[in-house]
Amino acid sequence: MWKLFHQLASPPHFYRLAAVIAPWLAVPGILLIAYGVYAGLFLAPMDYQQGDAFRIIYVHVPSAYLSMMAYMIMAISGGIGLIWRIKLSHAVAAASAPLGAAFTFLALVTGSIWGRPMWGTWWEWGDPRLTSELILLFLYFGYMALRGAIDDTAKADKASAVLALVGVVNVVIVHFSVEWWSSLHQGATLMRKDGPAMDPGMLYPLLAMILGFTFLFGSLLLRRVRTEVLFRERRTRWVREMILSPEGS
Amino acid sequence: MNEYTAQPPGLLSGLWATARRDLLLAWKRPGDVLNPLFFFAMVCTLFPLAVGPSAEQLEFSGPGVLWVAALLATLLSLNSLFLTDFEDGSLDQLLVSAQPLPILALGKTLAHWLTSGLPLVLVSPILAITYRMPGSVVPVMMLTLLLGTVSLSLLGSIGAALTVGLHRGTALLSLLILPLAMPVLILGANTVSLAAGNDVYTTGIWALGAYAVASLSLAPYATAAALRISNE
Amino acid sequence: MEGLAMGNYGAYVWSCFGLTLVVVLFSDWRARLRQRRVYRDIEVRIKALEERQ
């Protein structure tokens, strides 16, 4: 079992393995998303309060979920890299940042667009989740900015790992403090996006979307990690041999 | 007494030593202490200039404006926390010292708070009065600032350690610290608003206190780790 | 198809789905682009070193 773990952490093994695994994530992911989109848009019954606008949930929730999952991946793999000095771990952290930021951006924009017909405004500071999500975006930018500012890769890895770990604690605290703040200033405008109990016709497409997006995220991440690994290991022998050999890859 | 019978340095001696050194340095350069204070006052002036001096608007926005100004002034002063030491090589001395680095980092942060956070707290009532803050609310505001600036100095030291010596470190420092500072800002400003509205505000004070204590216990380690990473 | 109108909310719903699609495709495209560029850069350098020997 440890042998498998060691193999996995070895860059050349990971590089080859990831290429094999990625399609097994991408294809089910796309299929699940296809079902989710179709069912969510056309089969799910209309919401009593929000009409058809609630269907935005099918892209908004997966995006928000991924934005947070990506951050956890970033922080945990950074931590693993920092504590156990596994280079691959740092590559995973570096690769997940732009993806996480992209999904955070999506969550914010879809949330804003959803808010327009629901609250009558493009932005509602009073919504704790929107505000926390915005702060999460700032955290991602800070992480990427710090990585970009440090030239030495190893140093950048370690510094950003410290930042991500400190940020994880912060994400939790921000969430609670923004909720408290929002409750202080709350008007009657806050809409509970997931409504009361969800009709199964509404729920299944949502679950499919969340799962599908997660798989898709995994495949996207694998490609980025492979590129990251390739770049970091560009001067090693295994890369040289791989490129010179007939099929390369 | 010779070196065999003298007392070995205690755990906190490094803390007092670095704090004393920084305080002495600050004493010799009063500008370093006064500039952020003037900045604080000027930011407080900017708001009425921009949005108009209506009394109720001032009173309403007072807690928030004062807090944002305090936050920005602290950010300004955090920049130089490790910078001068980095530039003249004393930071390396701290890194190789036999004293635990978290303690030394805490000492520098203590000095920083004494020369930026504490003066802010002391100066704030003057500005609060210009914002027509009721006399009963001013002590609450000072208390929130007292606890808040402690957290800000501690959290800020992490950011300062991560960015010390980096090109364009200032902007990056702000980008890194502001998300960390947001809960403190939220708690501080809103607690004062609650007090102004005669609502129960003690939860906020407890939360700020908890935040300060948590920062005190955890930040020095993160700062020390960041210092080692930035300077290896 | 009345489904497309989404009860007056069509613009909002479709723009959200559309934006999601765009962001995902863009992200994938950028990732592939970077991968190809990194690979090619390394390949060029390694082949050049090989020539020299």
In what range is the share of β-strand residues of chain B?
A: under 5%
- The separation of the N and C termini of chain B measures 38 Å
Q: Specify the biggest β-sheet of chain A.
A: none
What structural category do the secondary elements of chain A indicate?
mainly alpha
Unreliable residue runs of chain A: 188-192
The multimeric state of the shown protein is heterotrimer
How many helices of chain A? The count is 8
| Helix fraction of chain B by DSSP (H/I, runs of at least 4) | over 70%
Give the topology string of chain A: H per helix, E per strand.
Answer: HHHHHHHH
Rg of chain A, Cα atoms, Å: 21 Å
Uncertain segments of chain B are none
Estimate what percentage of residues of chain A fall within beta strands: under 5%
Q: Look at the helices and sheets of chain B and give the structural class.
A: mainly alpha
Number of strands of chain B: 0
Give the count of structural domains of chain B: 1
Q: Give the termini distance of chain A in whole angstroms.
A: 28 Å
Please tell me what the overall shape of chain B is. elongated
Query: Greatest chain-chain interface?
Result: A-C, 39 and 30 residues
Series of H and E elements of chain B: HHHHHHHHH
Shape of chain A: globular
Structural summary, described in words:
The complex is a heterotrimer of chains A (249), B (232) and C (53). By secondary structure, chain A is mainly α. Chain A has one domain. Chain A contains 8 helices and no strands. Chain A has helices spanning 2-9, 11-43, 57-84, 87-119, 128-149, 153-184, 200-232, 237-244. In chain A, helix 2 (11-43) runs antiparallel to helix 7 (200-232), helix 3 packs antiparallel against helix 4 and helix 3 (57-84) runs parallel beside helix 7 (200-232). Residues 188-192 of chain A have low confidence and may be disordered. Chain B has 232 residues and is mostly helical. Chain B has one domain (22-230). Chain B is 81% helix and 0% strand. In chain B, 48% of the residues are buried. Chain C has a domain at 21-53. Chain C is rod-shaped, with a radius of gyration of 22 Å. Chain C has one helix spanning 10-52. The interface between A and C is medium-sized, with 39 and 30 residues.
